[in-house]
């Protein structure tokens, strides 16, 4: 499988080879656990040491000039012994396919290159022979007979050259049996050192009648009881029919190679170099069990291929053995093992090694081979048709794993008759603006025409309920392709969204509404999506707390973030039905779900045009109301596998705090996050579990998006495990569910990139309410406090949620007294938890706001401390009666332990450690009267109520209102109310607001900010006389003065301008008590300042000089337009407005 492809074999020299792996620890485990079948390959396996050096080497000797009458194995063996130990002949030499060149393999301690000329004397004739060492020599491995098939000895005997058949021919050439000759001389051409044996002495050469031994026989004879695995390279294969010009025949090599490769040649695998020190871990001694090959390195490569194949088979068995331990069953185990072996390995960068098939050729869509729209549509259709097609085979089952089940009452509610009100609610629950399906209707039309069509809708639903069948075509849908990336280049870059018919959507919504009510009972607490009471941020909180636990207590752990590739599209329908069956759903409900899935027909929208319809046989559709809830059931299968692994101690999660709580994984739809101790066993377990889940459910892991992170692990561990899992090695912090996890959220770098802002108005002013002089922008700090307070509201009522268990296990079990955490702020923890603890301190003058807002409503009293919780008149009894608390026998008791119910009436029973004095007895009487006014309700749960909400539930809005109480001056409040006059465009009103605060980018303000450097540049753009600020530009400039006088004459009033814009605007509102005239003059004020500002900017940027007459006309036109458009019915025209604007305002309704 993918992690084990890192093993490789490389020759060191002689009979030694090096076996190494990227993962040092994994190699040690392999050598220890797989020694039996490694022994089929190697004589001895031991760790590499510096003194382990090859003392011999294997050399192919090429011999030229050998006479035919001495050609034979015995002669070549005697020649090979001159330099070392003779091993074997090559096929071409032993089978005598050619006589110009002979080749034989020897083992020699001589490290110099062998190149020798020898003279051989036979029957008084002297022959010159040349012996040359070939430049490249590699080795073969010989295996046990039960590991690979035996050689076909019959075929070899037929090909072997027989001396008997040529006996007469040899005799005629003067060569008799047992003839001998002399070696006259020997000379090494390339080296002065003499490497020849018996130099100058007679060299006996014998001829033997009979059949020469085949290559396989020779190797078998040399290797004991082992056969030889002989392979040939691609170059050798090309010469199979005509013979190798270098003197080597490949036919038998290819035949024997088929014993391991089953007739198929494997492509060479690209290996990564060894990381770290680069020192190999294990060297392997073949100790004589070697066969030879020709030029090329195919022997080592074929050994690597066969070894990887063996490892792949072994890993498949290991995964299946672990799956059976978890409780997975299958009818045909051999088929399951084959499926494991067929799973594609991923490349070393962690990317998915998959075939991109869109229209037969990936370039057909969006590439040069595209011929037109029809070809694109056909290609897209074929791609999705194949994507939604299920392979027919018997998937394994999770029969040995237990799941929660719904009861009979739940099943009855699921299959009950659909009421008219329920059907109408389902229709109104659907979004009116969603795109229509093949029928062309959306829910806006259905809601508008409900009275006319409701009988047809009700009849459709009731017919389905009665017969459990859908009308043919009612489940057809379009698939719209929505880009997932900014610039999509291939079909996989699009997300397939289903557009269904409205009638089917109504039915699916009905089923989904019923299903969601019972899912909480069967879905594990590790799943956070689509279940009432569970939220996306629960998973983020748990992940942060687990990481913080590992960092603070130095626990070595890891996080594995898994993403499933096209999760909805690959779900097996059979697995959905299986999970429905295992979780207790009736046959009726299962058949309803089958009907909704199996009759689906889809067509793809390509540029708005649908392709031809085609059926689907797997997957659930995004856009179908049922799909999210069905996927929860699918994901529950993975949850069951993980729970089984934890129970059987196959996988160990991360323990939180000092308790027994262990967190192993979180699921939010198809986003899964695993937590575990940093051990190789855990990594192997995760890998096996995910592979098993792939086969069971049909889902496939997207390793390209998956990543592993380490917490407290040693350097390099994370990278090794990422290599083994074929995923990315991630870093902390990382994003989970779109939120940064594992970092300090108080640091700005955690939220980068953030834009740098240059505020015109301070943040405090913008956060004030509009009537208080601000923009009503939320105070993010206080709003965040209000949001964090929601966690206290949830802690008060949610004890069974996983996130609540994590908090209790990590920070102490309070038995429901969560207010003790609020009071005691000395505890440590994650930055999130410390912020939670500091909430009650408030911000500024809001100290104690959280405790003041909560109070306890006593029910049965099991979660309420009698003395310390403020349950009686919202006071703490221990503080009000400290003397009684001192002598109480139940200082730490809850309310239900301080009395009992008699005949349906609660009776308090307070006991003391001694008899009370008279003055203490008076305090006890007062205490008794106070507590008797509180009615205990045995059987009902205690509740924490938020006093600032009418429904007594904590709300962010009410908390934010408490935190942002603002004082306002009545005079300014009236002024700012006029600023946001609805007759004025919002952008003009906002500009007026900045003018009143003197925050516009006038030249003086720009000089203060350092934008303008020279003092001369601060002059007014319009008059070029004085420094430009808001007061000068709109009140003191000669252009502004002329405009105000002209407007006053137009309105027939007298205007007195002040030195400040804010004071002038306030006085303008006091000149008349008639609201319509005041609103009209406010329009004039806004029109004047806006027009002056626009004229100033045009002069700067467009060099347009100011024309006072045109500017006045523009002010009149703007004020008329604003009132006419925004005031409803106005019974006047522009000419009336220009003559007498005050009278026109009386005609506005």
Give short descriptive properties of this protein.
40% helix, RVT-Znf, Reverse transcriptase domain-containing protein, 43 helices, alpha+beta, 5-stranded mixed β-sheet
Question: Outline of this structure?
Answer:
The chain is α+β, with helices and mostly antiparallel strands. The protein contains 43 helices and 31 strands. The chain has a six-stranded antiparallel sheet with strand order 5-6-4-8-7-10.
Describe the structure.
The structure is a single chain. This protein is α+β, with helices and mostly antiparallel strands. It has 5 domains: 57-292, no CATH class; 348-353 and 524-572 and 618-743, Alpha-Beta Plaits; 406-521 and 584-617, no CATH class; 765-891 and 922-963, no CATH class; 970-1145, no CATH class. Helices cover 40% and strands 13% of the residues. Strand 17 and strand 18 form a beta hairpin. Residues 1-5, 138-297 and 344-368 have low confidence and may be disordered. It comes from Rubroshorea leprosula. InterPro entries: DNA/RNA_pol_sf (IPR043502), RT_dom (IPR000477), RVT-Znf (IPR026960).
